[in-house]
Specification:
28% helix, Jelly Rolls, 10 helices, binds 2-oxoglutaric acid, 8-stranded mixed β-sheet, alpha+beta
């Protein structure tokens, strides 16, 4: 059974069984692409050209084992603590133990809630209408909570382990290979898909600014690192249409119509193990289905852009607010990269740190300490950039 678009009143079990054949075929295609392996750098610290070539061809690359045992454990523990301290409902100021919830000290609320197994975006005008088609919303189990947390905003101020991961030398070398050595940040969020609860993120392409630029190219809207704290499976993971990052704006409505359902032909799931990090082009057609599977996914995202695609650019944020990314904003926001590198160096002094070119000579200003936690890290995400 193919799950039809906007299938009404499917149970979670019916949803899962209706997707099973598509999931199996997609996973086989994903594993045959040849775009996964450990981070490989040459003698001068540059990303191996074969990795870059595979990324450019398919629009994503799976860096296997990029996060080691203790680091992975620290990230999981920080996520669990952050979730334990969340408000119990979107309006509440108290956590599940009746204590003041985390996040009220930050200008931007860190928690985003959704109804279990819902599709909050598909077919709506939200996010500048970039999710044109609604996907199936299975009915959650009778004992499901009213709300599930689907997203955390501002990882670098919420969790020190995320700040240290942000300074990962191999990942930053990959970033440099794709975007140049003066790359700049986008944002940092965590996608959470609890089993039987996680909502979908309907098919979309992320970028909304440079599609018609005369110098548009496959890297015009940057990429996200997606660090997987648990295995990413066809049921809980992000799906992408390989190579679609090279096509310009894609007519997603047409793709769905031609495929006969939301099961877009040729798409593959970003399957991988815990501790793997996927570099995913933001121009890929991608999305994730309601998590009717028994498996949790927690993905720590950190996005990056080429500086020239951001500096001096006027655009609209997803909220519709107009913004210009002037030099002060770009430079101040980019200090988080140097801080992440320093935070990592303090915990792993034996590891060779990545050298971020725009931060050279600024090291003393960008030391990670309790002082910089207050005056640089706190509310850093008010300067998030978006194109
Ligand atoms: O992690 C997910 O489920 C969706 C991710 C996504 O759509 C994005 O990062 O743009």
């Amino acid at each position: 059974m193919n799950v039809p678009v906007s299938a009404a009143s499917l149970t979670a079990e019916e949803h899962a069984s209706g997707m099973a054949a598509y999931f199996g075929a997609g996973e086989r295609r994903a594993l045959a692409l040849g775009n996964r392996g450990p981070i490989r750098l040459d003698g001068s610290g540059k990303l191996h050209p074969e990795i870059l070539a595979a990324y450019r061809e398919h629009g994503f690359y799976v860096f296997q084992g990029a996060i080691g045992g203790q680091e992975l454990a620290d990230l999981r523990a920080d996520i669990d603590l952050t979730l334990a301290r969340a408000p119990v409902t979107p309006e509440s100021t108290l956590d599940r133990d009746g204590n003041p919830a985390l996040g009220q000290e930050f200008a931007r609320p860190p928690y985003r809630f959704a109804r279990p197994l819902s599709d909050p975006l598909g077919g709506t005008s939200r996010n500048k209408g970039r999710h044109p088609v609604k996907v199936a919303e299975p009915t959650p189990a009778d004992d499901a909570p009213e709300w599930t947390i689907e997203l955390l905003h501002g990882n670098l101020q919420l969790m020190d382990s995320c700040l240290r991961l942000y300074g990962h030398p191999g990942l930053l070398a990959a970033c440099e290979a794709v975007l140049g050595d003066d790359f700049v940040p986008y944002n940092e969020v965590v996608f959470i898909k609890e089993p039987g609860l996680g909502p979908s993120v309907a098919w979309h392409q992320d970028g909304t600014t440079h599609w018609d630029a005369p110098d548009w190219d496959m890297d015009a809207h940057g990429f996200n690192f997606m660090a997987q704290l648990y295995p990413s499976t066809p049921g809980n993971g992000v799906w992408v249409l390989p190579g679609s990052h090279r096509l310009g704006r894609v007519d997603i409505r047409r793709l769905v119509a031609e495929s006969g359902s939301e099961q877009i032909d040729g798409a593959v799931p970003l399957v991988c193990d815990s501790g793997d990090v996927i570099m995913t082009n933001r121009q890929l057609v991608h999305g994730s289905f309601a998590n009717s599977s028994p498996d949790r996914r927690v993905t720590v995202n950190a996005g990056f852009f080429a500086r020239r695609r951001v500096l001096g650019v006027t655009t609209e944020l997803l909220s519709g607010e107009a913004v210009t990314f002037d030099e002060e904003r770009v430079n101040e926001r980019s200090r988080m990269i140097s801080l992440g590198i320093d935070a990592r160096r303090q915990l792993f002094p034996e590891e060779k740190s990545y050298v971020y070119r725009p931060g050279i000579g600024q090291e003393d200003r960008n030391r990670w300490s309790e002082e910089t936690r207050q005056n640089i890290v706190k509310d850093y995400n008010l300067r998030d950039m978006y194109i």
